[in-house]
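We treat protein structure as text, and this decision shapes the records that our systems exchange. Because each token names a local backbone shape, the row as a whole describes the fold. For reference, a complete record is included directly beneath this paragraph.
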Amino acid sequence: MQTLNIVIDQALRDTTPHGTPEFPLAVYTTFINRNILGFVDWHWHNEIQFSLVIQGTVEFTIGTNTETLNAGEGIFINASILHRAVNANGTDGAYICLDFHPLMLLHSHSSFIDSKYILPFIGNKSLPYCRLEPETAWAQDVFGRIHRISGAYEQKEKEPSIETDYLDIYQDLIAMWAAVYKNFLSQKQGKETSVQDDTVFAIMKYISSHYQEKITLEQIASYANASVGTCSRKFRANMNCSIFEYIMNYRLEKSEELLLETDLPVTEIALNCGFATASYYIKHFRRTSSLSPAAYRKKHCQ
């Protein structure tokens, strides 16, 4: 299944449903070029993420670090870590993504397993991610489990009457976490430093709360408790784009959400998403997606 856009809330958290409350696992294949922006923009979620590149070359940026992955390579991204994904080297990249909630791993407050092997590491910002290299046997084992889980979900989507063996999937998820624990988390604990900048996170949080309004650098700097120059410099250094480029992308993604999920007129969507005029919105939407907002809605809502 392809997710066209990632819905994020005012704290930049990805609120796209990841599975069900009864079994909080989402499995999907992301074709990057199908995203409205042509890339998967900055977001975070409460879920643990395992990704395996199956086509082209993908650059995953996690905080200030960028990892370039070719087909057959993968990555683990911890819960609550900001990240994004873009195509690299002019390729048409795609990857299988498994997002599952830490509740899938936890037992009880008094569990020795939880306190030793899980709770100290979930969402630990000093242990944000690790590459999964195909040269290592443990990563190959993880890849096999990713393919097995993805295949089960694809089969279920094609033939809903088929019964999915959720026990096998659960065992695979436990084994994947154990592999990351043994080969990365336990070895790096206390040795890594955070890749997320608090000033940059504050800027993104302000934008997500005020994108419907006119935003100035002075307002952002005041909220982030830093100078305009510091905000601009840190943001570009960390995010590889200017603050105003990010604001434009954020507004376009929010407008896509309204286009696909509501019947609001294009003019109203433009104003709701912080664009001064409908014509200005349409120009930038067309520049990004090669379609007008109305044509985009028609194409994806048939």
Observations:
- The longest helix spans residues 166-188.
